[in-house]
Amino acid sequence: MTDQPFLYLAPIRGITDCLFRNLFQHHFGGFDQAVAPFVNPQPHSPFDPKQLRDLQPEENKSLPVVPQFLHTEINGLLSLAQRLHDLGYTHINWNLGCPAPMVTRKRRGSGLLPYPEAITSLLDQILPKLPMQLSIKTRLGLNHKDELAALLPRLNDYPLKEIIIHTRLGKQLYKGSTDPESFGHCMELSRHQLVYNGDITDSATFHGLQKQFSTVQRWMIGRGVLADPFLARTIKGEQFSPEQRTAMLISFHQELYAGYKKSLAGPSHLLGRMKQIWFYLAASFPGQQKIWKKIKKASTEEHYLAAIDIAMNSFSTATIDMLSK
Description:
Elements: E1 6-9, H1 18-27, E2 33-35, E3 65-66, E4 68-69, H2 74-86, E5 91-96, H3 101-104, H4 116-126, E6 133-141, H5 146-155, E7 160-169, H6 180-189, E8 194-197, H7 203-212, E9 218-221, H8 223-227, H9 231-235, H10 242-263, H11 267-281, H12 288-297, H13 301-323
Parallel strand pairs: 1-2, 1-9, 2-3, 4-5, 5-6, 6-7, 7-8, 8-9
Helix pairs in contact: 1-10, 10-13, 12-13
């Protein structure tokens, strides 16, 4: 269908790496593109190949990906952009939205939003030399929503591909309510294509926002789809039987677990990574607090897999009950 929304998978550091993106798209699908977690530029050559391992084109065939940077060091940034261009990338994203205090204190991520002169200065320096299109991912501000409101008109004359707006302040982190009304105000201030991001957790919420912002065609979903892996395809009108849901979830987990067991250094790293994912995924399961508690307490692979068996059995039973009503 030509009127289907364009859905981005959001960058979530420590979770949405290449393996996760590929397996998620293979098993659940629904996304049109992903923005990768940010890469740190290096000021000197040669560039360490390990930094771009997650972005090698041959490893990202399942889902097109947009690289992202966070730092603001010009030479390192341009060096990174050139390396990415050499790999075939035509679009890079600037992270002006990260709310982590250790980032914002350094005037990076959303910590740069109170300093519009620094933002436009960087754009003035890099855009004439950048070998690819640039987009921005941002928030409504660090401390006040008027920070982005003041910045957006100043960005109108820059050749940006799009601006992705998470509808919270940086100081909120991921707490409290989003502010869709302020996104509407941003639409009035900006001539760029805007992408909506923030607490799209179910299809009803999405379709409500889609009705509210009928001219917006591109949307970004992060934590909502980690908690409900079927969300992107549900938004696009697909339905799944209880048996399909259970089989998809089990198969995804088995492949993801096996992949991380092969690539990560030892059981502690493996369990740590899987627990990061289950912190969100447990929300889809009945008795989610008990499920999460069992997984969180697992100190060995055997204990972890036993907890997963319990979780999957409860998911299967609850899904059949829910969808048969």
